[in-house]
């Protein structure tokens, strides 16, 4: 398994083709793109009768250069997301310490220590999908003596085999394990990616909200204390309508991603 599998791919990636970048990195105005995303977030929140300052925008900067991340940071943004450990470890030290980094990719146990020591300002790991990785995170946080780490439980709401995440029926058990057995972790919500081609997006998002009801009931916590991380460039407005508190937006802020060509 490789890190790159835990990500939403552009539709044409499913055929193995990689989309051409729409613009070169130099042509991207990160600040303007960020403003327009916030406008759309505000509109979606208003439409849903929600307060938009309860919705966090995580700017997903994977594959993008530090200079472009810096541009978006300088425009006033603090939350960024990466999903490859190696890339995050390389970029984070070159950027301001008050950035709140979200790790959103598949995490292997042997990468936990390098991630936590390399990124002291790691704010959240959104992709905890079994007891083992939760236990490893818990132990390493304790060993290095950093403050408690927020984690979300990743749920596979689309039923696709290639997707990481616990089955919806397992989310209560895993959330309970994090809350009760991992004292160095702070359970902070649920995350999902949803169907890559967006065909069942509303169902996926409704499923995550249903998981939250069950988790909150079982753990005895109010729903406001359990975030819903759902919604990406192609579906964040719908996600906000359906209750998302954390949207993860990459290409709409940073431009299309360029991957090495597969042959
Ligand atoms: C890449 C990625 C995103 C952002 O995707 P865009 O469609 O570019 O907004 C969000 N979540 C995860 C888990 C990702 O891997």
Automatic annotation (TrEMBL):
Residue segments, region Disordered: 1-22
Gene3D superfamilies: Alanine racemase
Annotated source species: Arabis alpina
UniProt function note: Pyridoxal 5'-phosphate (PLP)-binding protein, which may be involved in intracellular homeostatic regulation of pyridoxal 5'-phosphate (PLP), the active form of vitamin B6.
Pfam families xref list: Ala_racemase_N
Membership in a protein family: Belongs to the pyridoxal phosphate-binding protein YggS/PROSC family.
Modified residues (N6-(pyridoxal phosphate)lysine): 62
Top-level taxonomic group: Eukaryota
Name of protein: Pyridoxal phosphate homeostasis protein
Biased composition (Basic and acidic residues): 1-10
Sequence ranges assigned to domain Alanine racemase N-terminal in this UniProt record: 43-257
GO cellular component: cytosol
Any GO molecular function: pyridoxal phosphate binding
UniProtKB keywords: Pyridoxal phosphate
